[in-house]
């Protein structure tokens, strides 16, 4: 594999605390083993609803079925009378926005398969960045299904080292003399010493193993150096888990795993994924463009977590549906009518609900913001972009805002009223106001970026006109 490409993919991202997981969300469900089923089968399920797709994503699977869903050979080969090639081509399209990572994984696995070489890889990335989904896609590719003996273990479910070894024995169909840790371990090592098919062992969520069970990681991460034809892939959130938790591996070159990092999804990637998911569900126009822009901008600014994005998408659609069918509608007509359109207002409401902001969106959200609040936001943008100020104090903001308002023949709010308007903007999550002994000395920090502001203001001409009005800035 080309080193340059490798380095590019292993790009450094900010790390997140060890064991920091998707459970940080108050209402987040632990996604179970079948979470990728929908993704993998996304293209063959035109009859499935987006709602169901997203709901499935959140369903907790309580059983111990950690293996990602495999598309059965029968399913893949003959589906509705279609030939294997047609259905496979349809089903096995790489995940949107993860094409590069998937290509990297494909090259990595192909190279080691061809050379019959052992290797280890550590895949990192924050929650919801598509690590499991991408690996699941790769494991289901026919060439890897056929040529590798695959073992996939989600470590969240593993209660002890014995259960991990036990599971590996089962998957490899290795006979053991018992179920104890030692019995299973010996059986595996005996198997690995003999000539065997290429093994692909994927350990997902290895950061969920506590320190006691982490010793098992050392053992397993050593296998590729000790035995031939073993490819090991460890997956977790933290960028530097192998350095911190397995420092001994770093010391020996032969044991040091390669790394592949999944960066948080950007706004455009989230939009692309949504667009693709909605198109596959024949729901292309469910989101108004501005609503989708806002949702994607917010998620990418906060976490780049697609699980969260899909969850919010589902809630927004439900809200839009409830709003539309609130009066005198029977359940039947509700189900039949799929022409719901999600507007910015509903996205803001759900975002407020999820990420805080005490004040519920009121009718003025129909038009984005009341005019005075728009002028304040635009004045802040003007100060930040053209005034080159890093920190905005309320007094200075009031000076600029007054000029901006006067230039448009709008009566400006006085200092006290402007502070109240800023408090409303703060409640919507647009601003943070803090510090300062007096009202004029309080600091104002914008929480939204340019794109989010444009989406929320719904008034691009006003914003660009004010941004051009440098005469309103102090000389
Ligand atoms: N590129 C994508 N296209 C479509 N859906 C995606 C994509 N990436 C992620 N998802 C969706 O987001 C959910 C979370 O993705 P996934 O489970 O792969 O994240 P992860 O990186 O493994 O997260 P964690 O670290 O929490 O295990 C998936 O169930 C999938 O439905
Ligand atoms: Mg995962």
Overview of this protein structure:
The structure is a single chain. The chain is an alpha/beta fold. It folds into three domains: 3-262, 3-Layer(aba) Sandwich (Rossmann fold); 267-356; 370-472, Arc Repressor Mutant, subunit A. The protein contains 23 helices and eight strands. The chain has helices at residues 3-9, 37-40, 50-58, 73-77, 84-91, 99-115, 131-139, 142-147, 161-172, 181-193, 211-226, 241-245, 247-251, 267-280, 289-302, 306-324, 331-336, 344-355, 371-385, 394-407, 415-427, 450-457, 460-468, and strands at residues 119-125, 149-154, 199-204, 230-236, 258-262, 392-393, 431-434, 443-446. The chain has a five-stranded parallel sheet, with helices on both faces. Helix 15 (289-302) runs parallel beside helix 18 and helix 15 (289-302) runs antiparallel to helix 22. Residues 1-87 and 358-367 have low confidence and may be disordered. The structure holds adenosine-5'-triphosphate and magnesium ion (MG). Magnesium ion is lined by residues 131-132, 204. Adenosine-5'-triphosphate is lined by residues 22, 31, 35-36, 39, 57, 95-98, 125, 127-133, 205, 237, 273, 306-307, 310.
